[in-house]
Design goal:
233 residues, 11 helices
């Protein structure tokens, strides 16, 4: 019955997106909500997900899978989102998270998007669990526990992999790519000033002090005035 629900959701949109529907179904069946929780760190710059969480730049996302779009009380949506209608099926979420403004033209979610299908499926599976009545995406009988291979190396794109890279990547790539960051060569103090500008002028949520120190240390060491890691490609 749980599978039937997922299948119904998928069928509802199969006509609109025939090619990706089957692909998404397979990705969701294999999705890992635990990994999705990590992917969500990118969203956390703008969204809380726990029940009753406050709005940030974006609305709280508790129970968003299957919920009506643009309908959270007390949040001011863009006109485009307010007029979007319908509900957040996995298909729509998959499209929205690929390229938010391609699906909701004129929307206000300035998120660069998740390029990898697996990241989208995992974060959708995570969001699905963060609600009062999760749908089942996987097979009706749970498959044997996934054999966990060697830990995946984390991918920080152009950023040097070193202590602090993970915190910096998660805090700084939700709205723009890391390229804009690694092209700078600033002192710690200048990075600190830039953070203030990012909060005051660019809608970044203030970063909590402990995490901010880690990020500033990382940036000053690897992206300081000597530009030891200026991207050549
Ligand atoms: C830079 C800030 C920002 C980031 C990062 C961000 N969002 Fe959003 N999100 C928003 C804003 C703002 C809206 C409201 C959009 C509108 O009104 O057009 C929104 C709306 C949404 C909605 C629709 C909510 C509703 O009530 O209909 C979903 C779903 C969503 N975001 C999921 C995500 C997920 C998942 C991620 C991470 C993969 C993410 N967002 C990253 C700012 C962000
Ligand atoms: C909430 C969205 C958001 C987040 C999160 C964010 N930025 Fe930005 N940032 C912007 C916007 C918007 C601009 C200006 C438009 C652009 O150039 O893309 C910008 C521009 C920049 C620039 C270019 C400044 C210049 O002189 O042109 C740098 C460097 C930068 N950000 C670094 C960071 C770092 C480092 C972090 C993480 C600590 C971060 N950003 C997090 C939204 C954000």
């Amino acid at each position: 019955m749980r599978t039937a629900f997922a299948a119904t959701l998928l069928l509802a949109f199969a006509a609109a997106a025939p090619a990706s529907a089957a692909d998404l179904e397979a990705r969701l069946a294999a999705a890992d909500p635990g990994r999705g929780k990590k992917v969500f760190r990118k969203c956390a710059a703008c969204h809380t997900v726990e029940k009753g969480g406050r709005k940030k730049i974006g609305p709280n996302l508790w129970g968003i899978v299957g919920a009506p779009a643009g309908a959270r009380e007390g949040f001011r949506y863009s006109r485009a989102m307010a007029a979007f209608g319908g509900s957040w099926t996995p298909e729509r979420l998959d499209a929205y998270l690929t390229k938010p403004r391609a699906l909701v033209k004129g929307g206000s979610m300035s998120f660069v998007g998740l390029k990898r299908g697996r990241d989208r499926a995992d974060v959708i599976a995570f969001l699905n669990e963060m609600g009062d009545s999760p749908a089942a995406f996987g097979p009706a009988t749970p498959a044997a526990p996934a054999v966990s291979g060697p830990a995946e190396p984390e991918d920080f794109g152009l950023m040097v992999s070193a202590p602090g890279a993970s915190e910096t990547f998660d805090a700084c790539t939700p709205c723009h790519s890391e390229r804009i960051v690694v092209q700078q060569g600033l002192t710690r103090e200048q990075w600190d000033e830039l953070m203030v500008w990012m909060v005051e002028e660019q809608e970044m949520e203030p970063i909590e002090e402990g995490a901010l120190a880690v990020i500033l240390d990382y940036l000053a060491e690897h992206y300081g005035p000597a530009r030891p890691n200026f991207p050549r490609r």
